[in-house]
Write a structure and sequence with these properties.
There is one protein chain. This protein has 13 helices and 22 strands. By secondary structure, the protein is an alpha/beta fold. Helix 1 runs parallel beside helix 9 and helix 11 crosses helix 13. The radius of gyration is 25 Å and the shape is globular. It binds S-adenosyl-L-homocysteine.
Length: 543
Amino acid sequence: MLKKNDILDAQITAMSSDGNGIAKIDGFVVFVPCSAVGDVLRLRIVKVQKNYCFGKIEEILTPAAQRIAPSCPVYQKCGGCSFRHITYEQELCHKAQFVADTLSRIGGLDLPLDPIVPSPLEEGYRNKAQYPIRIEDGEVVAGFFAKRSHRVIPCASCSLQPKFFTDIVEYTQTFAKSCRIPIYNEETGRGLLRHLYIRYGEVSGQVMVCLVVNGNSLPHSEEYIKGLLEVCPSVASVVLNVNKRQDNVILGEKCITLYGSDTIEDTLCGVSFHLSPLSFYQVNRQAAQKLYELAADMAGLSGSELLVDLYCGAGTIGLSMASRVRELIGVEIIPDAVENARENAKNCGIENARFLCADAGEAAKTLAQEGLHPDVIVVDPPRKGCSVDVLEAIQTMSPKKLVMISCNCASLARDCKALDAMGYKAIRAVPVDLFPRTTHVETVVLLSKLKEAEHHIEVDLNLDEMDLTSAESKATYGEIQDYVKEHTGLQVSHLYIAQVKRKNGIIERVNYNKSKSENARQPKCPPEKEKAITEALKHFQMI
Ligand code: SAH
């Protein structure tokens, strides 16, 4: 039995979905932060639970091949990144595996994943940052929360954000100090300044600076703005967000514009968007374009469709598809975001779109009761996934195609399973990495309605696009993985299995393992794993 402070040597053999390496010691699972698969480590046991424990690296005895030196001085302390110590290629591999495992384990889906789409930028990709401001050791600090804690790790300069964010953070810290702005204290609920929130329109170059305060005004605000414009002349909007709540929610509902415009502008998929501080907007614009293009591609739009975009935010997904549909209806609960969506449609001359400000479940129910029959529904819910109302209303509205986008693969898998029972079959799934160096990843899934009597897929797909694997193969991806694991101890991904199948002439969906230019970095199955998968294919008499 392992005890706290035990020192042991072990090899990391797998990676958990929250970015901890996994070692097995006498069958006991040990999670080790900042470790890499293949590392041989000397570990100190730091926390023991009933079925697992946590270890800390005392010494790296043999580093894994994909290890790299983390480029951030606060990497070990800050709760933001989890994959700075391994190559980006390896990170993509882990993320593709998490998505495949989750869709299969929770969703019961046995479909091959398309290759993960990498982010065009690995660093400096975020257009938004929210820095808590607190007093730590008597000093005003802005930075990020430590893992599972509300201690602020000072970090003005984070490489996930554009470099100029640092100037704004440092300036705001100095201003707060020199003007003696009372800093918020989470325990007492007193003090004024809580968060600094910066948003940047990559295409317009416009910057929004939003100060979240536990009050209705900011002392010396004119002085703050004057100095801010000297530090960053691209600031187009300075907003005060009023948040007097005593919980973890960062933003309050009320915004007061102190300088410039209420919104800033950005362009996504060729459509220009105005964004207020409260509107959701993807933090990685370049990767989001890839995600939305993929969603449009899956929707297979011809111009005649009625498209419903549920959880639409400022309208980004639907509006980027509006020129390819007959009519668009968006639904979103935050009034500011709906207002942005309506203005965005107007500014872009889009006349076939309307937006409803409502709970997605209630609105979907009403639309279904009105007898609305959309051809395609796109859903992009928050982390907790779709409400039961939404799923039931989708069934009633009965679209031919459903495109589901989610940053939480587990709730996505759960919703896909529920939809499966309602007659919707997942036919394509693609992970898209919008969040390099963190454990987060987006996934987009295309579901198609089965005809009740015949139970065949209604969507027109040409043969090349069809995934013939499940019809032709004698073993599922899961069974092949299990066989390989049992006989060689190796873990193999769906991607690797697909690559080996294709090499052996088993027809896969055409775009599955072909290297498109954006996927050129897709990991290739190593020879050892190829051999193991080939053996499994032989065992199942597939080759
Ligand atoms: N599709 C948008 C936004 C996705 S984020 C985009 O890609 O930019 C999820 C959105 O769901 C947020 O805008 C959030 O405000 C909204 N939302 C959360 N709960 C909701 C609910 N119950 N009904 C409708 N919208 C909701």
